[in-house]
TrEMBL record:
GO terms for cellular component: cytosol
Segments forming domain Adenosine deaminase: 22-360
Entry keyword Ribosomal protein: no
Organism: Brevibacterium luteolum
Keyword check for Amino-acid biosynthesis: no
Name of the featured protein: adenosine deaminase
Coiled-coil annotated residue ranges, if any: none
GO MF term set: adenosine deaminase activity; metal ion binding
E.C. designation(s): 3.5.4.4
Length: 370
C-alpha cells in the first residue's frame, strides 16, 4: 500500500483555502488521472516501455505532450496509461489511488469515467475489469473512513464512439448498476462519430431508467449537443462548450440572443460538465479568461467545473477553481453555485444529494471566506 495517501494535488498551494472547499467531480477520466510513479511501477511489471522512468520527468512529458498542439502526441499519452491498466491488480491500484487523490483535493463525490473495452488486452473480461475497478474504489472509501475522511464514488462506464460495441457496453453497465456503476457515456473522436450511431444502446438505457451523459460539443459543434440531448436521452453533457455557437452577443454590454437549443438547455437546466484547462488543450476554448463557462454562469446555465484528465492537464478540482478565481473573476458564491449544480446533477439518489447538500456543501462553504 502506498503510504502517501492524501498528498496535496500537484500545482496547488497547500494553504489555498479552495483546497478545503467541498467539491463534486463529475467529469474525471480514470485513465487520465494516474500517479506518475504508479505508471512507472506498473509499466515495469508488464514490460511496457515509457518515455521517461523518473516520476517528475514522466509528469512533465505528459503535460508537455498534452499541451503540444499535436493531436497524435496528445493521444499517445493515453496509450501509456491504458497499457498499464490491463490487469486486475493494476486496475484496482489505479482506482484506489484515483479516489484517494480526490479526497486530498477536497472532493467528497466523484464519478470515475472509463472504457472497459480498452482494458481487455491481457485477457480480462469487461466484467472482470469493472469488478477490479470497483474493488479499488471500495478500498479507497474504507481507507478514507479509517483516516477520518470521506469519499463516495461511482463508475461511469464508457463506450468508444468509433467502435461498434456500445450495446454490449450498455448491457455491461446495467449488469453492474447495483454494484458501483452509476452511469453510461460515449467518448472518443466526436467528428464523424455522432451519438446517434449508438442509438440502440441509448434506447436500451432509456427504457431501463439508467443515467446517461454524453461527450458532445467539444470537437463537434451544436449539432452533437442536440443529438445527445434530444435524440439520445442524455441527462448531462460532457463538455458542451460549443453551445456558445448557438448564441449571438452584440453591443458593448454583451447583450444578445439564444438559439433554440441554447434556450432549451437553459430552460431545462441540462447540466454542462465543463473542463476549462482541458478545453484549452483541445482548442475548444482560447483562454481561461474568455472560456464560455463564465458567460454560461452569468446566464444561469447549470454549469459544473471538472478536471477531465488530471495527469495530462496537470490539474485538479482545486486548480480549476483557482484558475477561474484568479483569471476569470470568479468569487466564492460562483464556486458554490457550480458545486451545488454538480451535486444536483450527480448520478446519486435524491435523498443522498439532499443529505450531502445539507451536511457537506452548505456548511463547508460557510466555514471559509476566500
Amino acid at each position: 500500500m502506498d503510504s502517501k495517501l492524501f498528498e496535496t494535488p500537484f500545482g496547488v498551494d497547500p494553504d489555498d483555502p479552495i483546497l478545503e472547499l467541498p467539491k463534486v467531480s463529475l467529469h474525471d477520466h480514470l485513465d487520465g488521472g494516474l500517479r506518475p510513479q504508479t505508471i512507472i511501477d506498473l509499466a515495469a511489471e508488464v514490460g511496457h516501455e515509457l518515455p521517461a522512468t523518473d516520476a517528475e520527468a514522466l509528469r512533465r512529458w505528459f503535460s508537455e505532450s498534452a499541451n503540444s498542439g499535436d493531436l497524435p502526441r496528445y493521444l499517445e499519452t493515453f496509450d501509456h496509461t491504458i497499457a498499464v491498466m490491463q490487469t486486475a491488480e493494476g486496475l484496482t491500484r489505479v482506482a484506489r489511488e484515483w479516489a484517494l487523490d480526490q479526497v486530498a483535493d477536497g472532493v467528497f463525490y466523484a464519478e470515475a469515467r472509463w472504457a472497459p473495452e480498452q482494458h481487455v488486452q491481457q485477457g480480462l473480461s469487461m466484467d472482470e475489469a469493472v469488478e477490479a475497478v470497483q474493488r479499488g474504489l471500495d478500498e479507497a472509501d474504507a481507507i478514507a473512513a479509517d483516516n477520518g475522511r470521506f469519499i463516495r464514488t461511482g463508475q461511469i462506464i464508457t463506450a468508444m464512439r468509433h467502435a461498434d460495441n456500445s450495446l454490449a457496453v450498455a448491457e455491461l453497465a446495467l449488469r453492474h448498476r447495483d454494484r458501483g456503476v452509476v452511469g453510461f457515456d460515449i467518448a472518443g473522436a466526436e467528428d464523424g462519430f455522432p451519438p446517434t450511431d449508438h442509438l440502440a444502446a441509448f434506447d436500451l438505457l432509456h427504457r431501463e431508467c439508467f443515467p446517461v451523459t454524453i461527450h458532445a460539443g467539444e470537437a463537434a459543434g451544436v449539432e452533437s449537443i442536440h443529438a445527445a440531448v434530444q435524440i439520445c436521452h442524455a441527462q448531462r453533457i460532457g463538455h458542451g462548450v460549443r453551445l456558445i455557437d448557438d448564441m449571438q452577443f452584440t453591443g458593448d454590454n454583451g447583450s444578445g440572443s439564444l438559439g433554440r437549443l441554447a434556450a432549451w438547455i437553459l430552460d431545462h437546466q441540462v447540466p454542462l460538465e465543463l473542463c476549462p484547462s482541458s478545453n484549452l488543450q483541445t482548442g475548444a476554448a482560447t483562454s481561461i479568461e474568455d472560456h464560455p463557462i463564465t458567460r454560461f454562469k452569468e446566464l444561469g446555465y447549470a454549469i459544473t467545473v471538472n478536471p477531465d484528465n488530471r495527469l495530462m492537464s496537470a490539474t485538479s478540482m482545486t486548480r480549476e477553481m483557482r484558475l477561474l478565481v484568479d483569471r476569470a473573476g470568479w468569487q466564492q458564491p460562483d464556486l458554490e453555485w457550480a458545486t451545488v449544480n454538480a451535486l444536483g446533477a450527480a448520478f446519486l439518489p435524491h435523498d443522498a444529494r439532499n443529505r450531502f447538500l445539507d451536511d457537506l456543501v452548505i456548511p463547508g462553504f460557510e466555514r471559509l471566506d476566500l
